[in-house]
Design a protein that fits this description.
Shape: globular
Number of helices: 2
Helix content: under 10%
Structural class: mainly beta
Radius of gyration: 19 Å
Order of helices and strands: HEEEEEEEEEEEEEEEEEEEEEEHE
Length: 315
């Protein structure tokens, strides 16, 4: 985790504390919050509050053996040191997602649902904004959203509908959605063939107005890496257009996933395990090798961001 013990380290933190959301990044992906958010550990998926004053993200050990949700708050123009979210740190929690109005924060967890204290499969939970900056105790969503299968990566729209990933019989995973009718959810329905296939599609960010969806397709023909990000736009008649690959500038040779677009559509975020690999420019010694291993781009997941314009004009 991120630990700061001395005055010197605090000063270094302040020097590295970027004005994250004041300067729009370029159309080339860059590490987000280098050495504060994106560091030598596994950092992935994030959610920025609609007012841009708070964000949550996941720190995860490789292979998902352990994951916790961290958060940072903007106080007098400065982002605070990341801490474990008040509702996380005991079970495997990941993939935070705000409701469009910021009153709820959804996330995924395998925490127990009864007094047995036995871990369950992964379900979608949420916390509600309480007095001040406090959050309620976690609340598990009922069926038909949650099931006996794993559910991941919630995305909530202004209509109240929820999109998420679900394990499917006879295949790996699909992106599904539950429409909201007077506060009640309809049964989950897979998105059409323009998005889902016989392979694995997962981790979809759906625009709150439901005008576009960005998702990962795993080991799909035409991919630049194992899993690539794609985008599909919805037409005025409600049909999803065939998904387009976001291209090699975004999609690396490994897995590119966990897409997210800020509510003002200025910033595009995603997760990638990019690394600096041999051959190096010069022969390395033990100190330089350790420095590479203890820095971002060491093969662990990290969060990248860029100007969102270039991907939102791919119609």
């Amino acid at each position: 985790m991120l630990l700061f013990f001395t005055v010197v380290s605090t000063q270094l933190f302040c020097q590295k504390n970027l004005e994250f959301f004041k300067i729009i990044p370029s159309d080339t992906p860059e590490l987000f919050g280098k050495e504060i958010i994106s560091d030598a550990y596994g950092n992935r998926d994030m959610a920025l509050a609609p007012d841009h004053k708070e964000f949550f993200y996941t720190i995860q050990y490789k292979s998902g053996a352990f994951s916790a949700i961290l958060f940072s708050k903007k106080i007098k123009g400065i982002w605070s040191k990341p801490e474990v979210a008040p509702f996380s740190g005991q079970y495997n929690d990941l993939e935070p997602a705000y409701s469009p109005d910021g009153s709820r924060l959804y996330f995924v967890s395998n925490r127990p649902i009864d007094s047995s204290n036995r871990a369950k499969d992964y379900d979608i939970w949420y916390v509600e904004k309480a007095t001040g900056d406090r959050w309620s105790n976690p609340i598990r969503m009922d069926a038909p959203v949650n099931s006996s299968k794993n559910e991941f990566y919630p995305s909530i729209t202004k209509s109240g509908s929820i999109y998420f990933t679900r394990e499917m019989e006879g295949k790996d995973e699909d992106i599904v959605w539950c429409a909201s009718h007077s506060g009640r959810y309809a049964e989950a329905v897979s998105l059409p063939d323009e998005i889902n296939s016989k392979g694995a599609e997962f981790n979809a960010y759906v625009d709150p107005d439901e005008t576009f969806v960005i998702f990962t397709a795993y080991k799909k023909t035409g991919n630049f890496g194992q899993g690539d990000l794609y985008i599909s736009f919805k037409s005025q008649d409600g049909r999803w257009a065939p998904a387009k690959n976001l291209g090699h500038i975004i999609n690396d040779k490994g897995l590119t996933y966990c897409p997210y677009v800020s509510s003002d559509r200025k910033f595009f975020f995603f997760t990638s395990a990019r690394w600096t690999s041999p051959p190096f420019n010069e022969k390395q010694n033990i100190a330089s090798l350790k420095k590479k291993l203890e820095s971002p781009k060491n093969g662990w997941d990290n969060i990248y961001w860029m100007d969102a314009k270039s991907i939102l004009t791919l119609k």
